[in-house]
Specification:
The chain is an all-alpha fold. The chain has helices at residues 2-21, 27-56, 74-77, 93-96, 110-126, 128-138, 140-181, 184-195, 201-209, 211-227, 232-254, 267-277, 291-295, 298-327, 337-363, 369-392, 398-412, 419-426, 431-446, 448-456, 463-487, 499-516, and strands spanning 82-84, 103-105. The chain contains 22 helices and 2 strands. Helix 4 (93-96) links the parallel strand 1 (82-84) and strand 2 (103-105).
Length: 517
């Protein structure tokens, strides 16, 4: 009789879930869109410094007449918008705040420019592990909104403090932005752990993490247009600063840390999410991270190795490939905004295909969650590994090179539905903590990629030496995927449920037994 009741209950629950799935757009989708917009702005803020430096530095870039060019050319720099820093004199209050042209330029060396650029990533790495605990303690909403507000003020003030404080102040403000953005990924993973049922996890996370491709697609061309406009290079930082402030306000007022804390969510949607994730309503007390058991879990180390391979390969693709095409192929892809953005644009669209595809494999039960994650990671890593080898032997033809880059980036995004979602599969409650650990390790090792490339490239025009650089990245892609396939798992960890709650359940069971007796 008891089995019959349980069967009826399960059938009713299954029917409810199926009915709700087709109900359409929900609060969870709206929040994912808000987070996607915030991450897009954040990634644009990361990438804008390189283009901004073209207008900030006293050197004249080569005139480029390419039809799709969106970079700043010599005409735009010398059209009265900019004045050498040593010759700059403020004309009025607005000009003193650099709200109106002309704008000062600086005689920073290449070394100083690299310090200013790397200051962001130094701050990003420094706070990576603590950010996992901050998101666990204070919730994703406060952290993401706070990060966007900090980026807002730092960006708006950046032009003024850079002129009056010099490159050290500029580096300090960029490091502040990096420190605040360190919270974004762990907080987003914490959010996904509270809001995304397994059957929708790929699509909802793909909606958010598509910003990693969308940020460069929108940010790089837009940054060039702003810098070449009367707003000048200060307008770049103020534009993104205002957008960051607006998105932070929207996150603060629209999003919530869990379904139980959202005031506008329907009872059916809340029940659907909580039942799917086995949540227990609005739990207010903070859960203790089971550090010993978490650090002994083999799945964590599989994710870390996979994350290292992805970060190393990504830095090679984004930092070294343009130099390879300039020095060896005789083509500077950075000079053409359309060609620069095209691989990212294709990556953005294939992102949605892979998110749907791997969700379908799980929902239709063609593969287990573990094997779906391994397949996704293998497609991304093996595709990138083979693509880099083909690129090393590619002929000197921009169309061939661009085609290889488009295909490579299109497949590369598949790995996000492998290792990147695996934290949430293993432990929805501590996904942010796990993400902070893997992100810290991957970035710590990944920053060595340019250094290793520099050691190998004793002659930057040597095709043979460039092949060695690509072989190293290709090998890491392949090796990291092998480790992930051997050690990876998507089984829910038994330490995901907090000990206090287990003890409370045992106490309740004892009380019920005593009442029966």
């Amino acid at each position: 009789m008891s089995d019959s009741r349980n069967s009826d209950k399960d059938n009713t629950k299954s029917a409810f879930v199926e009915e709700f799935k087709v109900a359409g757009w929900g609060i969870r989708h709206t929040q994912c869109v808000m987070l996607m917009i915030s991450l897009t702005i954040a990634y644009s803020l990361r990438a804008c410094m390189g283009v901004a430096l073209v207008g900030m530095i006293e050197t004249k870039p080569i005139q480029n007449t390419t039809k799709f060019n969106v970079s700043i050319d010599a005409h735009n720099i010398d059209d009265g918008l900019n004045v050498r820093g040593s010759e700059y004199e403020a004309h009025g209050f607005l000009n003193a705040l650099m709200l109106t042209p002309p704008y000062p330029q600086f005689d920073w060396s290449k070394k100083i420019q690299d310090v200013v650029i790397s200051a962001f990533f130094f701050g990003y790495m420094l706070l990576q592990i603590p950010s996992g605990q901050l998101s666990h303690r204070f919730g994703s909403r406060r952290l993401i909104a706070g990060a966007m507000f900090i980026n807002c003020f730092a960006s708006i003030l950046f032009p003024t403090v850079t002129f009056y404080g010099g490159w050290k102040t500029a580096a300090a403000f960029r490091m502040i932005q990096g420190l605040s953005q360190a919270c974004m990924m762990p907080a987003t993973h914490t959010f996904l752990g509270k809001w995304t049922p397994l059957e929708e996890r790929g699509r909802l996370s793909g909606m958010i993490y598509g910003a990693q491709a969308l940020g460069p697609v929108l940010g790089l061309p837009l940054t060039g247009f702003i810098a070449a406009s009367p707003l000048g290079w200060p307008g770049i930082f103020r534009f993104y600063g205002i957008l960051a402030g607006i998105s932070g306000a929207i996150i603060w007022y629209v999003c919530a840390d869990s379904p139980a804390q959202h005031v506008k969510i329907s009872l059916t949607e809340r029940s659907y999410i909580e039942e799917a994730l086995r949540q227990k309503g609005n739990v207010t007390k903070r859960l203790q991270v089971p550090w010993r058991r978490l650090l002994c879990h083999r799945g964590l180390y599989a994710i870390i190795v996979a994350h290292i391979g992805q970060t190393w390969g990504q830095l090679t693709l984004y930092s070294e490939v343009p130099a390879f095409m300039a020095k060896v192929m005789g083509v500077n892809i950075k000079a053409n905004g359309m060609l620069t953005a095209l691989p990212f644009l294709v990556m953005y669209f294939t992102n949605f295909f892979f998110s749907w595809f791997f969700d379908m494999l799980i929902v239709k039960k063609y593969l287990s969650v573990t094997w779906s994650r391994k397949l996704a990671n293998s497609i991304g890593c093996v595709g990138s590994s083979v693509g880099l080898i083909i690129l090393a032997y590619a002929p000197q033809d921009i169309y061939v090179v661009e085609t290889i880059m488009v295909i490579l980036c299109g497949f590369k995004i598949s790995a996000h539905y492998g290792f990147l979602l695996n934290h949430i599969d293993i432990s929805p409650n501590f996904a942010g903590t796990m993400m902070s650990l893997s992100n810290f390790c991957s970035n710590s090792v990944g920053v060595l990629a340019p250094i290793v490339a520099g050691l190998i490239l004793t002659d930057v025009t040597s095709v043979y030496l460039w092949r060695k650089v690509f072989f190293v990245s290709s090998g890491l892609y392949f090796f990291s995927n092998v480790v992930y396939c051997l050690l990876g798992t998507a089984e829910l960890a038994d330490w995901n449920e907090p000990e206090p709650e287990k003890k409370d359940e045992e106490a309740d069971a004892m009380i019920r037994n005593e009442e029966k007796n």
